[in-house]
Structures are given as structure tokens and as C-alpha cells.
């Protein structure tokens, strides 16, 4: 005999919208407390919930919340993320400027992006609303939603902050990294340049997701020249400012620093999230893979900033990251072509010199 909860789960597919609403609303807490009740009959309840994202906004809100909670389970995640038709519906709803549940859709997409197969989104296309001023490539639409969401100019119901996590997870894949560093024809902008400004944003979610995205893209060593070029991505100010506090440096160090770091206000604070600070330092370390990157960081006095970060941030992960970067920056470097010169080519057999993604 079915339990009361199992009967309630059955009501999410009821023809009466009021009954569907009551069922989904009352089932929300059970999606974290007893998720197994949704995994019966080969995940039939989850299948029903996927249909409900197109229902009345209040019903869709509860259905999405339940799906967000359930997709922490790998079996449910696979079932949802591999449904191409459902993904198309989700993405279509997400770009609708009147979508009341856009933030929840972004949160669900962030969970789905943890499924490796979602990297196929790199080539996916759909019609773009004229209000978005994007093109047919879904990645560009997600990026433009993310940018417009920062000031609420696209959808009054959404800030799209959770798209930062979508971009971060997708950027783990080489084909998506290539998207971030290639200028887009429809607006002439390198995608990475659209998100770099959010390394100093009030939203923790935005800062964290953007920091991880930049780090992931930095695993593409051939792109480092563009990363460091002032006329292309020019990423260093956006990595160094968040990890810089109100410390005072001697005149020689100060005058050697990037202009953006020379006249900081006395109340300047480094990012309070230790994980974000650690991520930025690790990105800087990735950018020392080439000799050009190492020499540039030495010339713009990155070392004093890292020294103060190590001294003032009481966090083991941050300190270890700082120590690794300092070891690179302070190491003696022989002249190119001489014995002991640092190897910069990708075919070096020394495993210790290779970038390892973790």
C-alpha cells in the first residue's frame, strides 16, 4: 500500500492545477529530507517535474526547487542533464525576459553543468530574443544574460548570478575554453573580457564563479599571450586588485606596479572569501608557465602583493598558493639557450613542470 508521501508525489501530475500546486509546494522539503520518494518507477516523478517547469509560475517554482535539490544525486542529474528536449525548454525559458523563475532555472542549469556531457552546449544554438542583443550561440546568450543581470536591465525577476557557476563548470572543457578567448563576430568582443570586471562585484556567487572560470581558461597555455596583453584581455589588474588590501609599499615597489594598483583608497580591502583569493593566486601561478609571464609579473612587482597576502590572510590554502607562486617568481632564471634555462615548451618530459588540472 502506498504511503501518504508516495500518494502526494503522485499528485504532481494531477490534471487539476490547484492540486499540482499543493502537491509540489508540500513536497519541497522532502526533496532534501527524503529524496528517495522521487526515485520510484524509474524516476517517473522526476519526469513529471520536468514537465512542470512550463506550468503556472508558482507550480514551476516548486518544481524547479525540487529538481535543484534532487540533482545533487548523480542518477537524477544524469536523467535530467541527458534530456536534450528538456535542456532546450530550460534554455528557451531562461532567455525569456518575462520569465519569473529565471534565477531558479539558472541554478538548475548550474547543477546540470556538472554533467560532463553538457559540454555539447558549446555548439548549441537557439533563437535569441531581440531584447538580449545576442546571437544564436547559446554560450553567448548565457554570457549576455549574465552581464545584463548584474544591473537588472533584462529581467526584473532575475540577476542571473548563478550563471557564473554554469560558466565555471563549462570552462573545464577545452572546447569551451576556446570560446572564452576568441573574439565573437556579432559584437567584436572576447567573451573573457565581458566577465573579468566581476572579480570585484558585491555578489559572492559572481566573484567565485568568475574567478573559477578565469582560472579554468588559463589552463590553455597558448592563450597566455592574450591574457597578459594590455590590448587584448589584460587580465592581471582583475586578478591583482581583489587580492590587494590597503597595505603600504615602498616607493620602488609602488611605482613599478600596474597603474590600477598605485592609487588605491586607504579603505581598500582584499576579497573576504579565502577561496576566491586562493583561486586568483593559483591563476597567477598558471600564468607563470611561460617565461614571458614570469618576467612580466616580476617587472610589475607582483611579489610584494603576494608577500602581503601571505602575511595577512590567515588561511592555509591561500598561504600554500602564495608560497608556490613566490617560489616561481623568486627563482633564478638562466638566459634562454643556456644550461639550466627554464623550459617553456609543452613537450618537456619533466612532470614537475607540467600544469596539472585538479
Description:
The chain is an all-alpha fold and 358 residues long. It folds into 3 domains: 81 residues, no CATH class; 107 residues, no CATH class; 113 residues, no CATH class. Helix content is 51%, strand content 0%. The chain is elongated.
Quick rundown:
This protein has helices at 4-10, 17-27, 30-33, 44-51, 57-70, 74-81, 84-94, 102-112, 138-149, 163-170, 174-181, 191-195, 204-217, 224-228, 236-240, 251-256, 274-286, 291-299, 302-312, 316-329.
List the uncertain runs: 338-358
* Amino- and carboxy-terminal Cα gap: 48 Å
Mean pLDDT: 92
Characterize the largest beta sheet: strand count, sense, and whether it forms a barrel: none
Summarize the helix and strand pattern as letters. Answer: HHHHHHHHHHHHHHHHHHHH
Backbone structural class = mainly alpha
Per DSSP, the total helix count is 20
Overall spatial form = elongated
Helix content: 40-55%
Strand coverage percent: under 5%
Number of domains: 3
Protein name: Protein HGH1 homolog
Family: Belongs to the HGH1 family.
InterPro entries: ARM-like (IPR011989), ARM-type_fold (IPR016024), Hgh1 (IPR039717), Protein_HGH1_C (IPR007206), Protein_HGH1_N (IPR007205)
Amino acid at each position: 500500500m502506498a504511503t501518504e508521501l508516495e500518494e502526494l508525489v503522485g499528485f504532481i501530475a494531477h490534471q487539476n492545477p490547484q492540486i499540482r500546486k499543493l502537491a509540489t509546494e508540500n513536497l519541497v522539503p522532502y526533496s532534501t529530507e527524503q529524496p528517495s520518494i522521487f526515485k520510484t518507477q524509474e524516476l517517473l516523478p522526476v519526469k513529471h517535474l520536468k514537465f512542470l517547469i512550463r506550468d503556472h509560475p508558482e507550480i514551476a517554482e516548486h518544481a524547479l526547487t525540487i529538481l535543484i535539490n534532487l540533482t545533487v544525486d548523480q542518477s537524477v542529474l544524469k536523467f535530467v542533464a541527458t534530456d536534450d528536449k528538456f535542456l532546450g525548454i530550460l534554455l528557451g525559458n531562461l532567455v525569456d525576459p518575462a520569465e519569473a523563475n529565471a534565477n531558479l532555472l539558472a541554478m538548475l542549469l548550474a547543477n546540470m553543468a556538472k554533467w560532463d556531457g553538457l559540454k555539447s552546449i558549446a555548439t548549441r544554438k537557439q533563437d535569441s530574443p531581440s531584447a538580449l542583443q545576442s546571437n544564436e550561440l547559446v554560450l553567448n546568450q548565457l554570457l549576455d544574460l549574465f552581464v545584463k543581470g548584474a544591473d537588472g536591465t533584462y529581467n526584473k525577476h532575475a540577476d542571473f548570478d548563478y550563471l557564473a557557476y554554469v560558466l565555471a563548470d563549462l570552462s573545464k572543457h577545452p572546447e569551451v575554453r576556446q570560446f572564452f578567448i576568441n573574439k565573437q563576430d556579432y559584437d567584436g568582443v572576447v567573451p573573457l573580457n565581458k566577465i573579468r570586471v566581476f572579480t570585484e562585484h558585491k555578489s559572492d556567487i559572481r566573484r567565485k564563479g568568475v574567478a573559477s572560470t578565469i582560472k579554468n581558461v588559463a589552463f590553455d597555455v597558448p592563450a597566455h599571450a592574450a591574457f597578459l596583453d594590455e590590448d587584448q584581455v589584460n587580465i592581471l589588474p582583475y586578478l591583482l586588485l581583489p587580492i590587494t588590501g590597503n597595505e603600504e609599499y615602498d616607493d620602488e615597489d609602488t611605482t613599478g606596479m600596474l597603474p590600477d594598483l598605485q592609487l588605491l583608497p586607504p579603505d581598500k580591502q582584499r576579497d573576504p572569501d579565502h577561496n576566491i583569493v586562493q583561486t586568483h593566486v593559483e591563476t597567477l601561478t598558471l600564468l607563470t608557465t611561460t617565461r614571458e609571464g614570469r618576467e612580466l609579473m616580476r617587472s610589475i612587482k607582483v611579489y610584494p602583493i603576494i608577500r602581503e597576502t601571505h602575511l595577512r590572510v590567515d588561511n592555509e590554502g591561500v598561504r600554500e598558493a602564495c608560497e608556490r607562486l613566490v617560489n616561481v617568481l623568486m627563482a633564478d632564471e638562466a638566459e634562454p639557450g643556456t644550461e639550466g634555462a627554464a623550459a617553456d615548451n609543452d613537450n618537456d618530459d619533466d612532470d614537475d613542470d607540467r600544469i596539472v588540472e585538479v
